[in-house]
Write a structure and sequence with these properties.
alpha+beta; Double Stranded RNA Binding Domain; 2 domains; 4-stranded mixed β-sheet; 3 helices; 25% helix
Length: 152
């Protein structure tokens, strides 16, 4: 997983790439190849967003994903480095369960959910992915939806 910073705002945002995929679309002459990049942006202090960018090459897709992630930032309510209450959320086929944890426990999560939680600034949380999907984009989106549903 690569990390890059495109810091032109006054916000101190960090970006982390979740996945880089080669995608194709069928047209009259055959298949047209492009790249899809999924990026998580966060300030590690309560703001997080996910961006998806597609382009002919990877660098173009990374720039688009970073721009969209910056536009889609949402505020997360945090209490002493953890979430205020237990929450469950579903996005497409992905389903996640987030539980607050005691201070010092750390982020207990896997895959894309861990990236979203660390970029949002949550220090202590337990996350369980309840679905069988291996799609990182839907898992990250379900985690973000759960964080958005929190009431602080």
């Amino acid at each position: 997983m690569a990390r890059f910073s495109n810091n032109k705002n006054k916000e101190d945002l960090q970006f982390q790439i979740i996945s880089i995929d080669r995608v194709t679309r069928v047209v009259a002459g055959g298949k047209r190849l492009s790249f899809r990049v999924v990026t998580v942006a966060g300030d590690k202090a309560g703001k997080v967003g996910i961006g998806i960018g597609k382009g002919k090459d990877v660098s173009e897709a990374m720039d688009k994903a970073a721009y969209k992630a910056r536009k889609n930032l949402t505020e997360i309510p945090l209490i002493n480095g953890t979430i205020p209450h237990e929450i469950e959320a579903k996005y497409s086929s992905a389903k996640v369960l987030l539980k607050p944890a005691k201070q010092g426990r750390g982020v207990i999560a896997g895959g894309a959910a861990r990236v979203v939680l660390t970029m949002s600034g949550v220090h202590d949380v337990t996350c369980k992915i309840l679905s069988r999907t291996t799609n990182k984009l839907t898992t990250a989106s379900a985690t973000l939806r759960a964080l958005q549903k929190l009431k602080g």
